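Same chain as my last thread, 161 residues:
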Amino acid sequence: MIETSLNRVWEVLEEVKDPEIPTVSVVELGLIRQVGFEGPRLIVALAPTFVGCPALDVMAATIKEQLLEIGIDQVEVKIVYHPPWTSDWITSEGRQKLKMLGLAPPAQHGGDLERFIEAPAQCPYCESTDTELKNSFGSSLCRAIYFCNNCTQPFEQFKPI
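reply #2:
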């Protein structure tokens, strides 16, 4: 086994992209909860955005493959459900990349979801809040479809979870 630092492991994980949003890494989405060695085996704790996430197997396989490529002999990706993933875990870099892609990031809520569920979405194109919900179900379970009345662009917003 090549001696690998945890800093190098995090660098590799920053390069692993979400299969549904390939401009954002699993780290930027807040999916990596813990990384550490137990003897020679590297354990990576991966939290899905929701139970049954269809991209979970792809992410876990990509993480393992990328880490094996840098010389780590034993990699285990553990799927963790506690604590459950929250959209608050998306990093500021991740939020900016989502916005640049045309996906409105959810507001930071700190667990007070009621206040944000009814709040208007902010358009990622013009930043207007003159928006309306068109469909509660977007291209994935954690997104909803909106329309901006200001710039007339449709867009998806991550639901605050």
